Amino acid sequence: MDSRQVTKISYFEIIGENYRAAYSNRYDEPVQAGTYQNKIQDAVNNGKLPGDFPAKPDVPSKHPDRFLDIYESKTSAGVSAYAFRLNGVVDGRQRLRFADSGPFIKLPMNSSTHEDFLTDLRPYIGEDGRWASFVCDLDAVRSSELAKRIQSIAEREDPERRHARFLTIPFCLNVVDPELDAAPWVVPAEEDEEMEGDDRLRHEAKARFSARLRREIFTHGGVHPSAASFLSVEL
Q1: pTM for the full predicted model
Q2: Taking burial as the number of CB atoms within 10 A of a residue's CB, which of 68, 95, 104, 191 is the most buried?
Q3: pLDDT greater than 90 at residue 145
């Protein structure tokens, strides 16, 4: 797939929400083929997402570990670029930047037909290494042999649920906490699960420990992204 075919950019701003990384804004912009890298660089130079009224992404899950998933419905088509701006501020300090070794890690799908949907993974110069992007051909995802196998199995096992068939493409944000000078997950994240009874008491004890840890050890390592995120494409 030729990344010069990109005709849409989806911009995402990532913030720290209760010490977890989450999308705060999404802005979709149509672009002429061959211009997307320059468009993203313009946004980097301006230090903000483009658009007058960026919209908060519709996150269908309330689970914090799913706050960095991207959902593309059937109305989304063609070749899209996905641009990310890290804005993980804790106590007034930026606690996220992309790693020098590369901004993303593509997790294995182990498909027998060897699909590789995420291409042109690149960082951008400016704002202290807080911008990066990748490209995905949504039409190629839907026409892939892997998508055909998913459709075939879904049709056989649950033919009524035609509206809920997705191919999910896993990736990981490869980031560093500038104060730790290491990935934020080297320090445990604060736990925020709701519990009852004995579990609640254990949770409160862990929360007291976490509060002490937060004071003493870099605020839980700054902002924790999901262990894995997914670009979910409706088939």
Answers
A1: 0.85
A2: 95
A3: yes
